[in-house]
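We treat protein structure as text, and this decision shapes the records that our systems exchange. Such a record has a labelled line for the sequence and another for the C-alpha cells. The record that follows is passed on verbatim for readers who wish to inspect the format:
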Amino acid sequence: MGSKNKLKRFNENKTFQNVIEPTREELVQNTLELKGNWKEKFFKNQNPIVLELGCGKGEYTVGLAQEYKDKNFIGIDIKGARFWRGAKTAIEENMNNVGFIRTQIELIEYIFDEGEVDEIWITFPDPQIKYKRTKHRLTNHDFLQRYKRVLKPEGIVHLKTDSEFMHGYTLGLLHGEGHEVLYANHNVYHNEGAPEVVTSIQTFYEKQYLEKNKPITYIQFKIS
C-alpha cells in the first residue's frame, strides 16, 4: 500500500464514528472516558462485548457482528490503515454493533475495566517463532493475565490459527498453567464437532490457506 493511500485511510478513520484512536498517554494516565462505559457510551446497549485482537482488515470482526447482532464487537490493531476496510464496511452497512480501536494490544487493561469483556478472539496472529520474540506472542503468560483482568470470570478466549507451532505452544501453556481448555482441534474444517462460529467466517488469507489444504487449528479456553 502506497504512503498516499495510507495517509488517506488514516485521515478517513478520523471521520469514522466507529473508530477510536486514543494516545498512549491518554490510556496510561487512565483518562479514557469509554473505559468501563463501552456499553452505555459507545454501543448504547447492554449486549455482551467481544474483542478481536490483531484484527487486520477487520473481516472477522465485521463477519461476527453480521452473524451475531445481539453482541457488540470491537477489533483492535495498531495498523489503522488495515482495519479502515472493516470500519468502512460497517458504516456502509449501518452496523451499530461494531467498533475499532487503534492501539497496542498490551494496553488492553487501560481500555477496558475489570470484567467488562465477555469473549476474546485471536485470529491468525504472528506466531513469533524466534525465542527472542516470545514476549510478543499473544498467548504467552503475560498476555493471558491481561486478558483475565478484562474478561468476565467465565469469559471465553478463542484462538484460530494456521500455525501448528502457535497451536501447540498455546495448548501446552494452557495445560501447564491449569487453564480450562473447552475445545481444541488441529483441523477444524475436517472435524464435524467444530463449533459453527469457527468455520462460518473466513478471512481473505484463511481462504487462501484452505485452497492450499493448509489445516486451520482452533482452541477455545477459559483463563483460570
